[in-house]
Design goal:
single chain; 365 residues; alpha/beta; seven-stranded mixed beta sheet; 34% helix; 22% strand
Length: 365
């Protein structure tokens, strides 16, 4: 169904790096039209981050730790909505929908389980805006991976770009969207992103991430560990495929390394995962656009350029987009598609058997 209406929506995203909540205001018809209006990123404080991190790896939503994490996360998302509305000079009545991803704490599609915490009903009631959340469950229940979900938004954004083209989102986990000449699409998680790097930085410094990749550039990459890690079965699996943030048994391997060498090696592993992904692409794109936190990591970008010397690699800002807001915008876009009954995923993005809609609507009144 399509009503040709252009919706004004707020998209909310909290990634597994736990750096904060991204909130984007955008307009979209849920199909080919998407226009960014405003964006903020609301950082977590240490107490919020600790409460949410404690729930990682848990899947019982009745667990007291999970319920506490959901309470903290929901309240922070309410603050993010209020903050982005204030910055944009808009009122709740100006917004049609909120696309609320929530916080992933457990992702095991092989067991038909994915858990995103976040109280959609409370968010709708407090803000006075209809909310769509629970984007992944229908896909996973149908046998899909439930991730990545933003590729259809990437496809809408890249409608004017020469094909084939690749968009890589380097967030807590990294994923790639390949768009071919016949408008074909392939998407999958490529491996680790910023999550482990950010964990180390938080533990060892007063920063929440490796600014400009300065820490990685000061360390030495342990190539023996990279060679060991890329031998994992995951990299051999035919996509689509997806990962849990903690789906890697690699942290014991870096315990004896210096802080700088650990960050450098984890950064190189993120790059290596992207390179491994090229083995599964139908053809090699000439143009690659990077979004997410990794696009701001100069060292990561330089190493990626070195490994893909025949490609042109640019931050997605080169196309006039805000790479930090793309994922939040994407969930605003998916919220519109959800209320229209349009697919959020297709077989070549999540392995779902057929194009699949999803999401749960909470009406504010």
């Amino acid at each position: 169904m399509s009503d040709n209406k252009v919706y004004t929506v707020i998209g909310l995203m909290s990634g597994t790096s736990l750096d904060g909540i991204d909130a984007s205001i955008m307009k979209s018809d849920g199909q080919g039209f998407a226009e960014s209006i405003d964006f903020i990123s609301l950082p977590y404080d240490d107490a919020d981050r600790a409460a949410i991190r404690a729930a990682f790896g848990l899947y019982n939503i009745n667990d007291a730790i999970v319920q506490r994490a959901e309470e903290v996360s929901t309240q922070k998302h309410i603050q993010a909505v209020e903050a982005v509305l204030k910055q944009a000079g808009l009122r709740a009545s100006d917004i049609d929908l909120i696309g609320y991803h929530g916080q992933t704490i457990y992702h095991a599609p092989q067991d038909n389980v994915t858990v995103q915490i976040g109280d959609g009903l409370k968010l709708s009631q407090v803000t006075g805006i209809d909310v769509v959340n629970d984007f992944r469950s229908a896909d996973v229940k149908a046998g899909g991976e439930g991730a990545p979900l933003i590729p259809l938004y990437h496809q809408a954004l890249m409608s004017e770009q020469k094909r084939p083209v690749a968009i890589v989102n380097i967030g807590g986990v990294s994923n790639i969207t390949y768009l071919g000449e016949e408008n074909d699409i392939l998407a999958f998680d490529t491996g680790t992103g910023n999550a482990f790097i950010d964990d180390l930085v938080v533990k060892n410094t007063n920063q929440t991430f490796d600014i400009d990749g300065a820490i990685a550039s000061a360390g030495r990459v342990q190539t023996d560990l990279i060679n060991k890690w890329v031998s994992a079965d995951y990299f051999k699996r035919i996509p689509p495929k997806s990962l849990d943030r903690d789906g890697w048994n690699i942290l014991d391997d870096i315990k004896q390394l210096s802080f700088e060498d650990s960050v450098a090696t984890l950064t190189a592993f993120t790059v290596a995962g992207i390179i491994e992904a090229t083995k599964h692409l139908p053809s090699m794109p000439e143009n690659w656009f990077i979004c997410g936190g990794g696009g701001n990591n100069k060292t990561m970008m330089q190493w990626l350029e070195k490994e893909l010397p025949t490609a042109t690699i640019k931050p997605i800002e080169a196309l006039g987009f805000n790479g930090d807001s793309i994922e939040a915008e994407g969930f605003g876009y998916l919220a519109v598609r959800s209320v229209l009954g349009l697919p959020l995923s297709v077989p070549t993005t999540t392995s779902v058997p057929e194009p699949m809609s999803g999401g749960k609507l909470y009406q504010s009144k």
